[in-house]
């Protein structure tokens, strides 16, 4: 999955795959996680948020199933 770099102190890159509705995040420490069944609008709002980390903590973390890659 191709990821795009974002401006955040904690999240380094964000990617999204439409076919599987999978959101992929690479954190500043190099760990990569995939979040499943994430609507595309959540991805779009995440990458366009004034604070990517804050949006992630409120709207993704603890909301969607995930796995470390």
How would you summarize this macromolecular structure in one to three sentences?
The protein has 69 residues and is α+β, with helices and mostly antiparallel strands. It contains 2 helices and 5 strands.
Q: DSSP strand (E) fraction?
A: 25-35%
Give the oligomeric state: single chain
The major pleated sheet works out as: 5 strands, antiparallel
* Tally of DSSP helical segments: 2
Please report the total strand number as a whole number. 5
| Global mean pLDDT | 97
Shape: globular
How would you classify the helix and strand content by structural class? alpha+beta
Could you give the order of strands across the largest sheet? 1-2-3-4-5
Rg estimate, integer Å: 11 Å
Q: Please trace the helix and strand order, writing H or E for each element.
A: EEEEHHE
Q: Would you identify the regions where 5 or more consecutive residues have pLDDT less than 50?
A: none
State the end-to-end distance. 12 Å
Task: Characterize the structure shown.
The protein has 69 residues and is of the alpha+beta class. The chain has one domain (3-68). The chain is 25% helix and 33% strand. It has 2 helices and 5 strands. Strand 1 (3-5) and strand 2 form a beta hairpin. The longest helix has 9 residues, at 40-48. The radius of gyration is 11 Å and the shape is globular.
